């Protein structure tokens, strides 16, 4: 009887250990996904002043990169790249940053369309794109963003 109880307890412990490991693993994959999304933005932009130099995709997550802010779960909530002399185009992968609240890209020379995938960013509070040279319409998907205050 005692033996059996012990065994049950051990099983519980190993189950908990597995769950913890699994959640760490999932968190890692998820954080890397956001790093990958930002890194694809980096590769798509010309960056004459090297403001994106710290955006190293081999790090576990993008939370230590300059101009990137994360929440306590290591998920990106801010990207601050205003007035950074960037040119090139945005990437649809930005739509993967699901906790993003602030996307500041004002006063650069970014061209091309505004990806409709930005409409997937349901937590977006501020999207500052002014003083760039985007082509095409503002995607209708952005109209879905109820928290958005600025454009
Ligand atoms: C954009 O590019 C033009 C010409 O290349 C340059 O004169 C201007 O200063 C740039 N603007 C910004 C905000 O970098
Ligand atoms: C955004 O949502 C649309 C529609 O659900 C989906 O097709 C698209 O793949 C999403 N984009 C990203 C980057 O997740």
What is the topology?
Layout: H1 2-44, E1 45-46, E2 68-70, E3 76-80, E4 87-89, E5 102-104, E6 109-112, E7 126-128, E8 133-134
Parallel strand pairs: 3-5, 4-6, 5-7, 6-8
Antiparallel strand pairs: 1-4, 2-3
Q: Can you put this structure into words, describing what you see?
A:
The chain has one helix and eight strands, in the order H-E-E-E-E-E-E-E-E. It has 151 residues and is an alpha/beta fold. The protein has a four-stranded mixed sheet. Strands 2-3-5-7 form a four-stranded mixed sheet, with no helix packed on it. The model has no long low-confidence stretch (mean pLDDT 90). Bound molecules: 2-acetamido-2-deoxy-beta-D-glucopyranose (2 copies). Residues 85, 107-109 line the site of one 2-acetamido-2-deoxy-beta-D-glucopyranose.
Feature tags:
151 residues, alpha/beta, Leucine-rich repeat, LRR (right-handed beta-alpha superhelix), four-stranded mixed beta sheet, 17% strand, binds 2-acetamido-2-deoxy-beta-D-glucopyranose, transmembrane receptor protein serine/threonine kinase activity
